[in-house]
Amino acid sequence: MSATSPIPIPTDTWKLGFIGAGKMAESIAKGVVQSGLLPAARIRTAHLGSARRTAFQSFGVTVVDHNDQVVEDSDVVILSVKPQVVKGVVLELKPKLSKKQLLVSVVAGVKLKDLQEWSGHDRFIRVMPNTPAAVGKAASVMSLGTAATEEDAELISKLFGAIGKIWKADEKLFDAITGLSGSGPAYMFLAIEALADGGVAAGLPRDLALGLASQTVLGAATMATATGKHPGQLKDDVASPGGTTIAGIHELEKGGIRGIFMNAVVAAAKRSRELSQG
């Protein structure tokens, strides 16, 4: 903790700013507005491109021309830029940053210690959301910087809770988190496509097969989160003796599906670790 306690973010009047106006920033801002957590009038970002400006303005967010303007008028500042430019952006903004502000990074692969060093600001929280943020179903994880308080963490939990679910974890776990929830949506898209292809191979029309596959994966995930049952138990509940499901599961097990998914997560985590080390 710093020598002086951080000034609490004003609960009723706080303003949110985004440095970077890409798809993730848009998803977060839209979720925050739609949830009622914050009115669009208290959110701002900066961009000069007409398409990005229109995207944010379409749901009421103020779009200015320069990042300095965003920082000067925000209590919580979310960095949502590409990893290769974040250092330059932070160094450029450093003179404008205030100790009363809470800084948040959703930049992949960039560690808190580096963000704090570049900014000269240790009231930082790193968050890793994933792409289902676009439909309000993100799996996000946050890690607190040196001077971030539990009140700060609570505020960020509410903010990212507007686009899905959020957990708190030690930053040393972020490479593994990248391998699972960061890359995981792509694994599931592959599974949906494969299930649909199986349906077509079994005689279903393509559009029906794809619709059934997508809804089936959604339904299974919802059951796993809503019931609290172990997925193995849910699987057993479907697989009756000598039935169709156990015959399909037998084929999946012969193909080593568990090991394949485990290897995919480990390989992605390893690659994340390599990239974050430069």
Automatic annotation (TrEMBL):
Domain Pyrroline-5-carboxylate reductase dimerisation: 171-275
EC number: 1.5.1.2
Gene3D superfamilies found in the cross-reference section: NAD(P)-binding Rossmann-like Domain, ProC C-terminal domain-like
Family matches, as InterPro entries: 6-PGluconate_DH-like_C_sf, NAD(P)-bd_dom_sf, P5C_Rdtase_cat_N, P5CR-like_CS, P5CR_dimer, Pyrroline-COOH_reductase
Pathway(s) where this gene product acts: Amino-acid biosynthesis; L-proline biosynthesis; L-proline from L-glutamate 5-semialdehyde: step 1/1
Residue ranges crossing the lipid bilayer per the database entry: none
Binding site for NADP(+): 19-24
Catalytic activity entry: L-proline + NAD(+) = (S)-1-pyrroline-5-carboxylate + NADH + 2 H(+); L-proline + NADP(+) = (S)-1-pyrroline-5-carboxylate + NADPH + 2 H(+)
Domain Pyrroline-5-carboxylate reductase catalytic N-terminal as annotated: residue spans: 15-109
Gene Ontology cellular-component annotations: cytoplasm
GO molecular function, one term: pyrroline-5-carboxylate reductase activity
Domain of life from the UniProt record: Eukaryota
Annotated localization: Cytoplasm
Family: Belongs to the pyrroline-5-carboxylate reductase family.
Protein name: Pyrroline-5-carboxylate reductase
Natural source organism: Daucus carota subsp. sativus
